[in-house]
């Protein structure tokens, strides 16, 4: 199995011109595309429709090139979008391909397992039902990625549903109880349940430690490699499990680290070194060019405090705290990699310890 990684710029949520160029130049075989992860320039909230717009645009391109329908592409390609490109963050997409190419390699290489849960009912969002569904798919993804040791898992991206006015009304009609009636407020429960699902699936936590009552409350329970997002464009949870496997023949390796806070430059460097990039001081141009993708979460500190200093992220009535955090983390990461095309997602419930967040790097070997 060989995983390919291609990062493309986007001038707008519907801009697929760079992937079109890669397909036309035969650098990418559209039949081998299995996943797209990207950042759109929406608000990142419950009403961020740029994510669905971007998905449809890429589905239509691939459908046209493969002579099939957008619906069929939706079944064979997983799309994960995070809205919000505040500060220097640049709208972009990272395209992942998979081929059956075999060969020799030196050490484990990048591998990827993808799976989908069943549709999550509105009353299941933010509950143990969602945790269990994600955990089951994580275990399936381990097998698909040919990873036998969970320690070789460096990043698990999960995107799932949040509550919307429509889904809330559906639950009301059926007499079901919800974790919250606030669509934007449901993001914390949804993200938290999916992260705990990753922790359960990888054996970081046991089922005895978990219950509905701990979700989005007991933040001392967490996964160290999960990155979860919630959006109104989904009904099920999409799981992408990244790691290294001796069975893979990719030209890339993945590594990860933990950002102690939004300005942890050393944590960024640690992720790059974990992926196999050897350097001291600043990256050279050649080393920076080998960085194929960066995926990170951003946190706003514990009670808005970063390194003992009060911030206004949690009290700013004009700018949502998640947008503050994305902008801060994005600037720090870009100052090290020299590239603002970075996937930075906010909301870290049960994703590393409170105040911390995961960062993963894919580097060309």
Extract low-pLDDT stretches: none
What is the CA-based Rg, rounded?
19 Å
CATH architecture annotation name of the largest domain: 2-Layer Sandwich
CATH topology-level fold name of the largest domain? 60s Ribosomal Protein L30, Chain: A
Find the count of extended strands (DSSP E, 2+ residues).
14
- N-to-C CA distance: 16 Å
CATH superfamily label of the largest domain: Cyanuric acid hydrolase/Barbiturase, RU B
Approximate strand percentage = 25-35%
Multimeric state: single chain
Number of helices: 9
Q: If you average the pLDDT, what whole number results?
A: 95
CATH class of the largest domain: Alpha Beta
In N-to-C order, the SSE pattern is EHEHHEEEHEHHEEEHHEEEHEE
Q: What share of residues is helical?
A: 25-40%
Please characterize this protein's 3D structure:
Helices cover 29% and strands 25% of the residues. It folds into three domains: 98 residues, Cyanuric acid hydrolase/Barbiturase, RU A (60s Ribosomal Protein L30, Chain: A), CATH 3.30.1330; 134 residues, Cyanuric acid hydrolase/Barbiturase, RU B (60s Ribosomal Protein L30, Chain: A); 113 residues, Cyanuric acid hydrolase/Barbituras, RU C (60s Ribosomal Protein L30, Chain: A). The mean pLDDT is 95. It is built from nine helices and 14 strands. The chain starts with a strand and ends with a strand. A four-stranded mixed sheet has the order 1-4-2-3. Helix 2 crosses helix 3.
């Amino acid at each position: 199995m060989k995983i390919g990684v291609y990062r493309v710029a986007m001038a707008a949520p519907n801009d697929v011109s760079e992937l079109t160029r890669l397909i036309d130049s035969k650098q990418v075989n559209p039949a081998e595309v299995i996943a797209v992860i990207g950042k759109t320039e929406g608000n990142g909230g419950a009403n961020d429709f740029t994510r669905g717009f971007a998905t449809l645009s890429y589905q239509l391109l691939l459908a046209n090139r493969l002579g099939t329908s957008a619906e069929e592409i939706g079944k064979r390609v997983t799309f994960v979008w995070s809205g919000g490109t505040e500060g220097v963050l640049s709208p972009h997409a990272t395209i992942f391909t998979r081929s059956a190419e075999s060969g020799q390699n030196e050490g484990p290489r990048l591998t990827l397992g993808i799976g989908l849960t069943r549709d999550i009912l509105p009353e299941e969002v933010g509950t143990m039902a969602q945790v269990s569904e994600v955990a089951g798919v994580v275990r399936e993804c381990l097998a698909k990625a040919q990873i036998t040791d969970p320690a070789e898992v460096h990043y698990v991206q999960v995107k799932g549903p949040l509550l919307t006015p429509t889904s809330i009304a559906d639950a009301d009609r059926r007499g079901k109880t919800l974790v919250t009636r606030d669509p934007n407020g449901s993001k914390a429960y949804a993200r938290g349940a999916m992260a705990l699902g990753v922790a359960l699936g990888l054996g970081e936590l046991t089922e005895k430690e978990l219950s509905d009552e701990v979700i989005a409350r007991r933040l001392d329970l967490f996964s160290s490699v999960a990155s979860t997002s919630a959006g109104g464009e989904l009904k099920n949870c999409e799981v992408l499990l990244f790691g290294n496997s001796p069975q893979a023949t990719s030209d890339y390796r993945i590594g990860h680290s933990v950002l102690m806070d939004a300005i942890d430059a050393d944590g960024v460097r640690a992720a790059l070194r974990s992926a196999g990039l050897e350097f001291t001081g600043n990256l050279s141009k050649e080393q920076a060019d080998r960085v194929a993708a960066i995926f990170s979460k951003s946190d706003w500190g514990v009670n808005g405090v970063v390194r003992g200093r009060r911030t206004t992220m949690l009290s700013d009535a004009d700018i949502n705290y998640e947008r503050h955090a994305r902008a801060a983390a994005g600037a720090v990461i870009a100052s090290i990699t020299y590239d603002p095309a970075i996937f930075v997602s906010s909301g870290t419930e049960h994703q590393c310890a409170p105040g911390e967040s995961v960062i993963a790097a894919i580097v060309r070997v």
